[in-house]
Amino acid sequence: MTAEAFAQENRSGERKWRRRSLWSVILLIPLAIAVEAYDSVKALLADNDLFSRRVAWGQSAHFGGSDWKLTDLRGAFGMANLPPDSVPVLADFQVTIGNPDLQNLWLGCKIVLIDKDGRHWSPTTLVSLKTPDTVQTCVSAIFSGAKTGDTLNLRETFLVPKEATKSIRPAVGVASERPHFLLFQMEKD
Amino acid sequence: MMRRLANILLLLVAVAFCYGLQLSKPHYGDLIGPIPARGKLGDTIVGRGFEARAEKVEFARNLRTDRFGETEILTTGGVWAVVTVKFAARAQSTVVSIASWRGPTGLTYDQTERLSFANDLLPVPIDPGLPRKARLVFELRPDQVSNATLLISEKLLAALDSQAEISLGPIAVGADGMPAGTVDTFDMTQPL
Prior knowledge:
The complex is a heterodimer.
Chain A: H1 3-47, E1 51-55, E2 60-63, E3 66-75, E4 86-96, H2 102-105, E5 110-114, E6 120-121, E7 135-136, H3 138-142, E8 151-161, E9 169-173, E10 180-184
Parallel strand pairs in A: 1-10, 7-8
Antiparallel strand pairs in A: 2-3, 3-4, 4-8, 5-6, 5-9, 9-10
Chain B: H1 2-24, H2 28-31, E1 35-40, E2 44-46, E3 50-67, E4 70-89, E5 94-96, E6 98-102, E7 108-110, E8 124-126, E9 132-140, E10 149-153, E11 162-167, E12 183-187
Parallel strand pairs in B: 1-11, 3-12
Antiparallel strand pairs in B: 2-3, 3-4, 4-9, 5-8, 6-7, 6-10, 10-11
């Protein structure tokens, strides 16, 4: 082989590898982004209630190992010492326990009210209403030691502006089901 | 010869450029720090999760509070500043917990912890559509009163989240070195 032919072969080999490298960049950059973003995307999906599962009025839905049913959503009018134009709202649920491992399945349990504009209300500490001993909140139920087949009555209290009361719907999210959450519909929906 | 000179010149330019990059590189803390939402006294400042409007700033030598039914007077070697702020939640319920007072020379004062038992102090939970007032109380050196900035955020580490920065403007100082309009005793038990 002459020196010239050798050099030519070298050049074409180099060109070939340069082309391969360029193509591999097109593949590797999105791959690197995907690997880098994996943990963040996983955290985003695991920490947020993003996709709603609608539950019709009067129906129950299997969620976090148990069957959830909205039994009542009503305003408690006529209370004193509240901000003007605000109404306490009580949301009552009946939950039939399926899998009793609530400390894992119901971790991060969050019940909120969502209105037609997408505003979220969390349970309030401003209103304290007397509740019967059999009524618990979502978080206290986690530690209630409930067994399979038990029925729990859960209640959360919210403070909502009057103008929003017509369109609010209760929503339930637990860590084991995120990013999905239950959105309960009302009778008139 | 020319080629070598050009190379050296290019190298120097590259060194200068890299040095410039290094100098202007923001600190990691700045990159992930709070995002300021600026305004002045009386403005409604809109952050990601909450809105804040500082309505008034009052100064006092003493604070009167109620502690388990007994009146208590809190004195200070400096001056008390009481800021009345109206808060509103935006898209979802939240809690505004942190406020600090940054004086003109950069000295920053956290809220006083001497009042932890009083009402209407931070942390204040707020719900959408239900604005609520709160008092922020600081114990300051009198020379840190004028041209100060109030910093308010939901959480202590407001990384990549809004922080309201409210400039409080110049405040005249009286002959005794105290801010003009300083009252002797401010009554914290008065409703907002």
